[in-house]
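Q: Focus on the shape:
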Amino acid sequence: MTSISPVNNAALVILQQASSSAASSSPSNGEADIVKLANGVSAEPSNGTKSAAAVAGKFAVDSAPAAGKIHVAGLGSADSWGELEERVRSDETLSEGERKEWLDKLEDLQEKFTAVETFLSSDGFAKIKSGALQSQLAATTAEISERDARHNAINAFAEKHGRGEPFREF
């Protein structure tokens, strides 16, 4: 069984008593800050928070591609796909097999990039982005919910009569 002790930390009790006795005579900012820190309240971020924020900020800056550039992990940024391909072809540290793998990967990435650009400029994406398909989506979701309810009722009936589940999810 777990129990929770009502006994406060001795240092916290002393600081709270000092704070309440000093409350009648206006405490200095330093004393008030010590009491706030003892109670776990502080306007200053902790060292852990500062460190995490610094790491996250550095990661965001380091991983953000330059505007208008193509960024490929392991190759860096370039203005065009051709420039990346030329960088791979002229890299003397790569073996012939590694060079072929990089060139195949770049070709695949370029095809995917083109497909995404085509989708983003399509009428279908514009409708999705504008919310024009929201009512259709809501109607489809309602139909799916009704169908699932019917299937569940049929499954319950069939199971009750020893027939198994005709509508199992796979």
Observations:
- Helices lie at 10-23, 29-38, 47-63, 81-90, 96-120, 123-130, 134-160.
- The longest helix spans residues 134-160.
- The chain has a mean pLDDT of 75.
